[in-house]
Amino acid sequence: MRGVTTNDEHTASGGELRRNPVNGKLTIVAPGRAARPSDLHAAAAAGATDPCPFCAGNEALTPPEVDAVRPGGGPDSSGWRIRVVPNKYPALAGMHEVIVHSPDHEAELEDLGDEGLLEVLEVWRRRIAAQLDAGAAAATLIVNRGPGAGASLSHPHAQLLGTPVVPPLLLDELLEFERFRNRYGGCVLCAEIDGVGDRVVHAGDIAAWVPAAARFPGELWLAPKIHEPDVRRADLRPLAGALRRALVAVDAATGGAALNLWLHTAPAELRGTYHWHLELAPRLSSIAGLELGADIALVTVEPEAAAEALRASWPQG
Ligand SMILES: [Zn+2]
Ligand SMILES: [Zn+2]
Ligand SMILES: [Zn+2]
Questions:
Q1: Is 73 inside any structural domain?
Q2: What is the tens place of the pLDDT at every residue in 13-27?
């Protein structure tokens, strides 16, 4: 929609968070992001060859780094293993970071091995802590994989968004935790893991399961079996092994579908109870009118059958 959604006059200084008073939904109005590069865009596929800003050697194409794992070399030079830069086209100024998982343009998270993935998770956690320490009310970490999941650059990376308010989905979860605690006592997510039955995909220090009311076919949740609200206190080593296997299993069970992944952790000021977790959402179908008009998902794969397929694809090694 030329003239409606794009405006090259705007600078990429960050958007404005607005709330619709009729339904309470939030929108970030960020015209500057329309100018961001995309190597997944049809034009790029047709032959445009913009250099990838996340590849080693192209450090000058990003804003100066704010964090990195590098055995040698100085800031903004090559030699890094993981690199964190402010998003050049931030949704919200100062609160939107990109975590580049590897200098390798092709290496997905599951290709980094358990040790490499552990190092990435440590950086995720460090940056979440930095956002919360800097005054964000909550920090949301997301990975978009594939154009069908909204990714604009194919080089594997995560985005971390600090927000001055608790996002509505996290707020909904906090209310459900509170409601459960008032009614039954304890933690709703601990109860969910205990009662998962045939929707279990993997049982270990990190549980992996399909929610009974999964919103996406092949949706998979990961959480520590031992109750813990805040990922800043998580034991990341078992998570690295479980997440690597989960990514392999989801990819195999969905035929390499586009994927969104997000991490939910307690907000800066937690009043009730919470239990941190990761949600993996394969994008086999697009969001349609029922989702948008009623906020009701419709899946055509039984969660129990999806769990069986994911168990069959779960790597043993
Ligand atoms: Zn690259
Ligand atoms: Zn719990
Ligand atoms: Zn969640």
A1: no
A2: 788 899 988 888 899
